[in-house]
Amino acid sequence: MTRDVITFTEDEEVGAAAQTLSKKRITGAPVVDSEGHVVGIVSEVDVLTKRGKTVKEIMSPHVIAVTEDTGVEEAAQLLAGKRIRRLPVLRGGKMVGLVSRSDILDFFALSHWTCDNCGHWERGLEAPVICAMCQGDSFHLERGAPGV
Fold this sequence. Notes:
The chain is of the alpha/beta class. It folds into two domains: 98 residues, CBS-domain; 34 residues. The protein is built from five helices and nine strands. Strands 1-2-3 form a three-stranded mixed sheet. Strand 7 and strand 8 form a beta hairpin. 20% of the residues are buried. The model has no long low-confidence stretch (mean pLDDT 94).
């Protein structure tokens, strides 16, 4: 999860939002109200295909979000299943971070589950149910290349 999230306000001018997306090399960002609640998402597609002067006029108001307790597998399923690129992470209705498809890919690429019994490892978004080598059922998560 990224905690330092670029956001837009509803009354931000579309041109300014486009400049921010371009300058920061991001494809979209949450839109928040004055109290920090997520009220929409604005993407590069919104900027390119919709007409309006403010972010509120072009944003997608239907936000799919998760909480801090949401597991990485569930977040990955939402991102893939809903064909979206980012999920605001909420605590008490307010945004505390953002999970993107690249965050999930980083987790998958840099993590593996190691069997506590035999040391066999497997990649995955969640721990295996049973070890393919020794039939053990206890695993711990490790970051980095296996065996390092």
